[in-house]
């Protein structure tokens, strides 16, 4: 009995060992559930475990940032629906401070999107600072649940600090590495940054001066300066192309006029050639008539000379005959 139970127990034990799951063999869905019980900062740190954790963690962080943006938009709509329509009444409304805090958070999210989303869409990296997502969620939940929140610069101090450090570290340390991984990709950061900055500034026009620190204003001013410089360069290029186009158009018009003039000259020369051909034909006809007249005159003159010669020869023969007859007569007379 023991011998029979021994092999079966060993096979069961081996099957159990094969069926046991490890962290490296956990399905992606299960790992998502595990990550949902952690904070985003812990998920960002867990990316260092292995490649599978890194891949799933990147997807989870990107989804978290997108969900954060959608949650912020829903909170803003919910608060703005409760505000009066007049701008003067909004400043004194109990929810005015809530809106100021959400506007400052929107500015933070816009800056983070300008920094990370380009490389996220190219699948070169993920939204790395998970702690920023946690702090943003904390601020928005606190604002939505608290009837009288503190001033914006007090509640947003931690969010500003960690987001500014994250963006500076990303621009200085990570971006140079990512640019080496995208050969042949032409980056146009200034145009995208301009649109994003303009949209963020237009959306935050109602925000108080104390809701943004000086470093953010300096960053936005630098981005606007770069965008303005790029716009000036593009305008100069467009102006140069316009002047080049006008010069080319002038040259084409001049060449067209020259072609028209040359066509007129060719037409005049062709008419002159036709007139000369008519004159040559007339001269050929006259020469032909003159040659015929000369031939006729030559034929008539030669016939006359032949007739004269014949007459002279005939008269000469007659004279000879007459002379011969007279000489015979004289001989006969002498003989007699």
The shape, in one word, is: rod-shaped
What is the end-to-end distance? 203 Å
Biggest sheet layout = none
The overall average pLDDT, rounded, is: 77
User: Helix coverage percent of residues?
Assistant: over 70%
The strand count comes to 0
Compute the gyration radius: what is it?
Answer: 57 Å
User: Uncertain segments of ≥5 residues (pLDDT<50)?
Assistant: 1-7, 185-211
Structural class: mainly alpha
What's the helix count?
11
**Topology pattern, helix = H, strand = E:** HHHHHHHHHHH
- Beta content comes to under 5%
Would you kindly provide a brief summary of this structure?
With 336 residues, the chain is an all-alpha fold. 83% of the residues lie in helices and 0% in strands.
Describe this structure in words.
The protein has 336 residues and is an all-alpha fold. It contains eleven helices and no strands. The chain has helices spanning 2-19, 28-36, 40-46, 51-82, 87-91, 96-121, 130-145, 152-155, 157-180, 189-203, 214-335.
Provide the fold topology.
Elements: H1 2-19, H2 28-36, H3 40-46, H4 51-82, H5 87-91, H6 96-121, H7 130-145, H8 152-155, H9 157-180, H10 189-203, H11 214-335
Features:
single chain; 336 residues; mainly alpha; 11 helices; disordered N terminus
């Amino acid at each position: 009995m023991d011998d029979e139970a021994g092999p079966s127990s060993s096979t069961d034990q081996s099957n159990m060992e094969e069926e046991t799951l490890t962290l490296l063999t956990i399905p992606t869905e299960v790992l998502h559930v595990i990550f949902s019980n952690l904070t985003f900062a812990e998920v960002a740190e867990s990316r260092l475990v292995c490649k599978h954790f890194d891949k799933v963690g990147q997807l989870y962080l990107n989804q978290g940032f997108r969900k954060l943006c959608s949650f912020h938009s829903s909170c803003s709509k919910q608060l703005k629906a409760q505000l009066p329509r007049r701008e003067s009444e909004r400043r004194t409304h109990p929810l005015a401070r809530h809106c100021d805090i959400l506007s400052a958070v929107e500015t933070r999210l816009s800056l983070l999107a300008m920094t990370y989303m380009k490389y996220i869409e190219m699948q070169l990296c993920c939204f790395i600072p998970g702690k920023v997502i946690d702090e943003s969620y904390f601020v928005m939940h606190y604002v939505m649940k608290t009837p009288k929140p503190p001033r914006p610069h007090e509640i947003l101090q931690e969010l500003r600090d960690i987001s500014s450090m994250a963006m500076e570290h990303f621009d200085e340390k990570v971006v140079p590495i990512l640019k080496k991984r995208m050969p042949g990709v032409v980056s146009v950061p200034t145009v995208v940054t301009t649109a994003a900055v303009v949209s963020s500034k237009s959306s935050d026009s109602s925000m108080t001066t104390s809701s943004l620190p000086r470093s953010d204003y300096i960053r936005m001013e630098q981005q606007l300066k770069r965008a303005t410089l790029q716009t000036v360069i593009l305008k100069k290029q467009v102006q140069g192309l316009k002047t080049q186009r006008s010069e080319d158009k002038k040259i084409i018009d001049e060449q067209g006029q020259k072609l028209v003039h040359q066509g007129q000259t060719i037409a005049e020369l062709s008419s002159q050639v036709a007139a000369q051909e008519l004159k040559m034909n007339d001269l050929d006809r006259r020469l032909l008539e003159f040659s015929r007249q000369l031939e006729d005159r030559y034929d008539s003159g030669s016939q006359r000379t032949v007739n004269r010669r014949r007459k002279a020869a005939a008269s000469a023969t007659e004279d000879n005959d007459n002379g011969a007859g007279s000489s015979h007569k004289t001989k006969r007379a002498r003989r007699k």
